[in-house]
Amino acid sequence: MIKIVVDEANVRIDKYLASKLDYSREYIGKLIDAKLVLVNGKVIKASYKINLNEEIIIHDEEFKVEEDILPVKMDLNIVYEDEYLMVINKPSGLVVHPGNGNYNNTLVNGLMYYTKNLSDVGGEFRPGIVHRIDKDTSGLLLIAKSNQVHEILADDFKNKRIKREYIALLDGVFRQGSATIDAPIGRDKQNREKMAVVEDGKHAVTHMKVLKRYKEYTLVSCILETGRTHQIRVHMAYIGYPIHNDPVYAKKEATSFGQFLHSYKMNFVHPITKKEMEFTCPLPKYFEEFLDSLEEI
User: Fold this and answer.
1) Is 171 a catalytic residue?
2) Do residues 12 and 47 touch, judged by C-beta distance below 8 A?
3) Residue 118's closest CA among 69, 163, 49?
4) Are 244 and 250 in contact (CB under 8 A)?
5) pLDDT (tens digit, 9 = 90+) per residue, 30-80?
6) Contact present, 165 and 232 (Cβ < 8 Å)
7) How confident is the model over 243-247, as a mean pLDDT?
8) Inter-residue contact 218 to 174 (CB < 8 Å)
């Protein structure tokens, strides 16, 4: 089951959900036709136009997908594992969970091959997935092995008890030593496939600190105070220093590697043992090699 509180208005529900989830509009239409999408507890049609703050419940766990989600052997980079949870270093280019016709080449497929102990709170498409990072963002990802652990970690994320630090390479030379970007994020009014800083968006705060300056680039650390979709990518583009090689928010043509954004550090209290946990993981080789090729200031 998926629950969403609507943050827009006067948009068709099938279009809205396609922009929010990793499901195609066609698939969402099938869920609606099967009466598995409820708005404020009522069945609706695909043409229904949403209103602000309505509650959408999607019972996707009751819908039989046309294609089974199968375990796939995969070389997982496991940073930490115990009987309750895992911390994975996700490579750039790997989608976190199935959707949009990609059912067999995601991290979830690899996790399903590796272990049968995964939470199912997030539904059939998201076993173990407490949070996600973009396909072309690399780095640390937290996986829950039971529903109890999943629910505790989800609450920790919601209440900002889990700290995450990212490393990003920005286009341009940022002259100040640090900055805090406090700018609301929502769907781009001109292109619903993108996010943007918009007046009626959700509260979003990113703390950025310069690590190193190069002739045409700046290496920075970003700490999220909130966790909006594409938050760092949108905020960096908004202040005029987009993440290098970002295929969506940078104006330059991007290579297949995608944005130079890496989930570098994660700090949280273990949901069962209550031990303070902190993990870091190195930058991807391609990222490191590109930095090595740059001329420092």
Assistant:
1) no
2) yes
3) 69
4) yes
5) 889 888 999 999 999 989 999 999 999 998 766 655 456 789 999 999 999
6) no
7) 96
8) yes
Token couple for 239: 């202040």
- Across the chain, mean pLDDT equals 91
Q: Which of 159, 194, 220 is the last residue of a domain?
A: 159
Among candidates 250, 232, 244, 243, which has minimal Cα distance to 180?
232
Cα angle 13, 247, 213; round to 5: 130
More confident of the two residues 34 and 232: 232
Could you give the CA distance from residue 56 to residue 37 in angstroms, rounded to a whole number? Answer: 7
Residue ranges of the alpha helices (H) in the chain? 13-20, 25-33, 107-114, 147-158, 231-238, 285-292
Q: What percent of the chain has pLDDT over 90?
A: 72
Active site residue: 14, 134, 136, 246, which one? Answer: 134
Same domain as 72, residue 22: no
Whether residue 198 contacts residue 187, with contact meaning beta carbons closer than 8 Å, is answered with yes
Whether 52 and 79 share a structural domain? no
Q: What is the model's pTM?
A: 0.78
* Domain housing 133: 65-159
Count of CA atoms in the C-beta half-sphere (13 A) of 199: 0
How far apart (Å, rounded) are the C-alpha atoms in residues 143 and 131? 8
Of the residues 62, 80, 107, the one at which a domain ends: 62
- Whether residue 146 lies inside any domain: the answer is yes
Give the separation between CA 31 and CA 140, rounded to whole angstroms: 32
Position 77 scores a pLDDT of 97
CA distances from 140 to 61, 86, 194 (A): 27, 10, 24
Provide the sign of the torsion angle of the four alpha carbons 20, 26, 29, 30, taken in this order.
Answer: negative
Residue 147: in which H helix or E strand, if any? helix 147-158
